[in-house]
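2024-03-11 09:14:02 DEBUG pipeline.ingest accepted 1 chain
2024-03-11 09:14:02 DEBUG pipeline.ingest length=151
2024-03-11 09:14:03 DEBUG pipeline.predict start
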Amino acid sequence: IIAALADAVVVVESPESGGAMHTVDEALRRDRPVLAVPGPVTSHASAGTNRLLRDVAVPCCDVDDVLLLLGITPNAVGAGGPDRRPPPSGAAAAVLTALGWTPATLDHVVGRSGLGLGEVALALETLVADGWVVVDGPWFERVTQGRGVRR
């Protein structure tokens, strides 16, 4: 039913078999576009989405990817127009790049960035305050426009 009614199917996380993969098969049979969110290659829960990316799916990292595929101009709908967050610069930009799109602890970000603990901690606080990152316990997670709310 989902594949028949959808303009596109987005698979966020899926093992190699199961309900999401059945939906993908039906979407492909109906010539519906399939998008997949990349996941860690070491995660069983991402094996299906990563295989889809290799074989048939369009990569999807945020809502703009879906909108573009559907021919809708990003920022014309949804969170209220252009991204109004201040662009990260200096250490904050480096830390945001090091964080990527996978939740990470402070120690992980320090290791990925090559910066000192104090510099990374300060940059993360700036990114949280500016709406680029949210905090959930010990985890820092990058967010798309309009979702930068401290949890």
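2024-03-11 09:14:41 DEBUG pipeline.report The CA atoms of residues 39 and 123 lie 25 Å apart.
2024-03-11 09:14:41 DEBUG pipeline.predict end
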